[in-house]
Amino acid sequence: MSGIAAPRPDHPSLLPALLAADAPEDRIRRSGRDWAIDVLCFVLAAGSGVFMLYVTSHPPHSMPHPPRPPDVILGSAACLLLWVRRRWPVPLALALAVTGLFSVTSIGAAAILVFTVAVHRPFRTVALVAVAHVGSSAVYTAIYPDPTQSYWVSMTWTVVLIGAVVAWGMFVRARRQLVLSLRDRAVRAESEQQLRVEQARHQERARIAREMHDVLAHRISLLSVHAGALEFRPDAPPVEIAQAAGVIRASAHQALQDLREVIGVLRDDAGDGAPERPQPSLTDLPALIDESRRAGMAVRWDNQVDDDSIVPANIGRSAYRTVQEGLTNARKHAPGAAVRVMVGGSAGSGLTVEVRNSLVKTAPEIPGAGAGLIGLTERAMLAGGRLEHGRTLQGDFRVHAWLPWPEAT
């Protein structure tokens, strides 16, 4: 007892913590397994009490013992208390340490309660409960000594048995904590995997949405140009009116088709085997420029790349979107102005894309959100390149992008 430090006055919450009931999860309704374990513990405690009663009462092992009626009553009560040991393990274990001074038949129930405390409580609490039982046994052995062995031999066996019970209980506790830790790690790993999958889906949807912004802005600007031509030239020849109406119809149909695709992608989760929508590349630039020319734009196309097909797909796609956004902005903010599109570069030196137009306004400007150039800048940075845009000293508006084009290995 002298080797255990007494609780210091600056820890007034120690005793309530020791006597507190288990956490809410310890008070869950008993399962079938819990009932089986409780019945087994009761049978073992009762059997141990009967055995000790027999050993201390019959020769040649008879020895001094407490009065039988109180001993049996206390031992029976101790066995019954095992049914609520999960809720109050520490108070019951301390109570049985006191009961052990007057009852030899409560030894089995006391050992089970010490084991329960070792399973459900931290080491400091377990050590205090174990010391209480060792002290109780020391007093009992001094009052009712065993005539077949010395006092210290009896105490040594007591300490060994209590230590074995405590060690077994703490082993069970450590194993349970390990299992719970592994289960928690598995749950967290699964949750993190689901989160990564969900983030990948959101990133893919955001990427598709940015792509569709570029496409829809381009087609709607074509609609606006042709509708404006019909509005400002109501006396145009029927052939030109029919041609403009055909372009408007085709552009509106394609815009609706693109919008239907992006809404379907953003609404539904695509399966792993779902085909991805074909993405444009540098080889699609002539078709884009021809479409703009048919819409009435004066576009000068300067292609300085020897072979468009050898440009990496991601670089070609970024170049295509840069030209598409530049042509869309020229139609919106400088309708009727001549536009120069230049693409040049080679593997190792990078790919340069430039769209330049004058700032002369000849018609009302189509409103815009200004997010296209921001998206292009982000796209270029993600690809490892850079994008600049703004007015030049010559009075033009210039979009200039440089994209890395690694050498083939």
TrEMBL record:
SUPFAM superfamilies for this protein: ATPase domain of HSP90 chaperone/DNA topoisomerase II/histidine kinase
Start and end residues of each DUF7134 domain: 33-176
GO function terms (MF aspect): ATP binding; phosphorelay sensor kinase activity; protein dimerization activity
GO cellular component terms, A-Z: membrane
Membrane-spanning ranges: 35-55, 92-119, 126-145, 151-172
Keywords: ATP-binding, Kinase, Membrane, Nucleotide-binding, Phosphoprotein, Transferase, Transmembrane, Transmembrane helix, Two-component regulatory system
Matches recorded under InterPro entries: DUF7134, HATPase_C_sf, Sensor_HK_TwoCompSys, Sig_transdc_His_kin_sub3_dim/P
Protein name: histidine kinase
